[in-house]
Specification:
The protein is mainly β. It is built from two helices and 31 strands. The chain has helices spanning about 10-20, 120-135; strands at about 50, 60, 70, 75, 80-85, 105-115, 115-120, 145-155, 160-165, 170-175, 190-195, 210, 215, 230-235, 240-245, 255, 265, 280-285, 290-295, 305-310, 320, 320-325, 335-340, 345-350, 360, 365, 370-375, 375, 380, 385-395, 400-405. The longest helix has 15 residues, at about 10-20. The protein starts with 7 loop residues before the first helix and ends with a strand.
Length: about 400
């Protein structure tokens, strides 16, 4: 995610500048945006030496700011972006969303700047080189000459860029290193509605809404996190929807079209999804192909009276979890609890009052916590980072989700 130095005045002035440009044909006497044509990137200190990216923290880049972009003689502050190339050419830009970047010969760093100085993190530098060159761990060269330039542009209120110009190119000799690039987290969606949890359509996670689950043998796009997710449980036929986020004001959602089986995405006028008959169902959503299916589940899972968390933090006694599904007519198979753990705590999910049913395993970490495909009698779950977590557990699939609060 880009870290952008947001400046309200910049946005206003940039939009104004674009507006004035649009008026030129109507009145040639109106002021127009004055655009600079060049600026100079200075040769960095130690550029001729080999900068060890693993042993340094930052590389300082400085440049002479161009003659200001102006309108009505008022300066419009540009945004500066650092760009890198290992081929000495800047023809095809690396696109993080593209399927194939083999033709890319340069990459823009995420961080932007509003003055003539950039202290670029060497870790960011190394990561960008690896992305651009598609290096595997055993392919990183011992040294690498990097061509660097800076782009100057103005941005409107939506951060679209206009009137770009580019500095000269300077070369920096580096000693790169391999950076383990983390794959994107799976794209999670939420279930909400009269058929879900307490049936209130409220926003409290666990009590009112629950996340759908990843599938143990499914593959997820490393760049987007898209793939197939699911939920298995009892639906009473009262209606529900899927939400892509709980804080986007329903911008992303799945609902029902003309009838059950006709599902529509991001249609604010869609109906609630209502199964034709109460029973157990598998809800499957492929976030990559945008395909939603809801099929009857084969079998009648055992309904438990209670679930608990147990571990080193409570002497392996039971701390009861609450049932998620509590509306009238619900059959519950999802459980939740909020608990504060210390780093190094061990925990399992188990049937209240018995160890006959218990789930453990090894966590998969995400940006907001971790999840695990619970294994019967599996290893104790190890808490790596202290904090308060919302735990949600499905006793049909054994899926356990820890969401850090």
């Amino acid at each position: 995610m880009k870290r952008i130095y947001r400046n309200a005045m910049l946005a206003i002035m940039a939009v104004a500048a674009l507006s004035f440009m649009g008026c030129k044909d109507d009145n040639e006497s109106n002021p127009t945006l004055t655009q600079p044509t060049q600026f100079v990137l200075n040769n960095p200190a130690l550029a001729d030496a080999h900068i060890d990216l693993a042993k340094s923290e930052t590389i300082e880049l400085t440049w002479s700011q161009p003659t200001p972009y102006t309108n009505y003689n008022a300066p419009v502050t540009p945004t500066y972006t650092v760009q890198l190339s290992t081929k000495g050419s800047f023809t095809t830009e690396y696109d993080a969303d593209a399927e194939d970047n083999s033709a890319a010969d340069y990459i823009s760093l995420d961080e932007t700047y509003s003055s003539g100085v950039a202290n670029v993190s060497t870790a960011t530098f190394a990561r960008a080189l690896e992305q651009l060159n598609l290096w595997e761990e055993d392919q990183v060269p011992s040294t690498q000459k990097v061509s660097v330039r800076v782009k100057s542009a103005i941005r409107d209120a939506s951060f679209a860029e206009y009137y770009p110009i580019y500095s000269n190119v300077v070369n920096i000799n580096t000693v790169p290193y391999y950076v383990a690039l983390k794959a994107a987290d799976p794209e999670f969606w939420w279930l909400i509605g009269s058929d879900i949890c307490d049936g209130s359509w409220g926003g409290d996670k666990g009590k009112c809404v629950i996340p759908m689950q990843t599938i143990s043998d499914a593959e997820y796009d490393k760049k987007t996190g898209q793939g197939e997710i699911q939920w298995i449980g009892y639906l009473a036929g009262n209606g529900f929807k899927l939400r892509g986020s709980m804080d986007d004001n329903w911008a992303t959602q799945w609902g029902q079209g003309d009838s059950f089986g006709s599902f529509v995405k991001n249609d604010g006028g869609s109906g609630n999804i209502t199964v034709p008959k109460a029973g157990y169902y598998t809800i499957s959503l492929n976030t990559k192909t945008d395909k939603l299916s809801i099929e009857p589940y084969d079998g009648t899972p055992k309904a438990y009276d209670g679930m608990a968390i147990s571990g080193s933090f409570n002497g392996w006694s039971d701390e009861p979890m609450s049932p998620c599904f509590t509306f009238d007519g619900a059959v519950n198979h999802d459980w939740y609890i909020t608990h504060t753990f210390a780093a190094g705590d061990e925990v399992k999910i188990k049937q209240a009052g018995s160890w006959d049913f218990n789930k453990g395993g090894s966590f998969i970490e995400t940006a907001d916590g971790m999840y695990v495909y619970g294994v019967s009698g599996g290893d104790n779950l190890l808490i790596g980072e202290e904090g308060t977590y919302l735990i949600i557990f499905n006793d049909i699939t054994g899926y356990i989700r820890f969401i850090k609060q």
